[in-house]
Amino acid sequence: MSSASSLPIEALKTDFLAQLNQHHLVVEAATGSGKSTHLPVWAASLGKVLVVQPRRIACEALASYVSQQLAAAGKAYRVGYAIRFHSTVEQHTDIAFVTPGIALRWLAEGKLADYAVMIIDEFHERRWDSDLLLALVKPLALRIVVTSATLQGDRLAAYLPAKVLQAQGREFPVEVSYLAREAHHLPDNQNMLEAVKAALNIAMAKDQGDILVFLPGRGEIQRCLDSLSKLDAQVLALHASISAEQRQTILDSSNEPRPRRVILATNVAETSLTIPRISAVIDSGLERRTQQRAGRTVLSLARISRASAEQRRGRAGRVQAGHCYRLWGEFAPLENTTPPQMQREELLEPMLFAASCGKALASLTFLEALPDKSLQLAKARLQTMQALVGEDSLSEHGKRLLKLPIDSYFSHLVELVSSANEKAAMLDLAAALSINQRLLSKPSGEHALKQLSHWQPLHCDMTMLLDLLRGRAWPEELDVNQQALTQAQELAEQLRAVMAQDDLAEAQPYDRDKLLGCLIEKAPELVYVRREKRPQAMANGHTEIELGRDSLLADEQAAALVFDIYSLPGRGHKQLKNIGLCMAPLSFTLLQAKQVGELVATGELDSEGRQCMQRVYAGRVIATEQHRASPEQCRQALVQQLLTKQLPDFQELNVAEDIAAWNLWVSLGEKHGGGEGQPLEVEAWLLERLQELGVEQVDDMSLLEPQDLQFAGIPSWLRADFEARYPRLLVLADLKLDIEYLSRTKQVIAHYHSGGRKAGPKRWELPAWSGWRVYYKKASKRVALT
Question: Could you tell me which SMART domains the record lists for this protein (predicted)?
Answer without folding.
Answer: DEXDc, HA2, HELICc
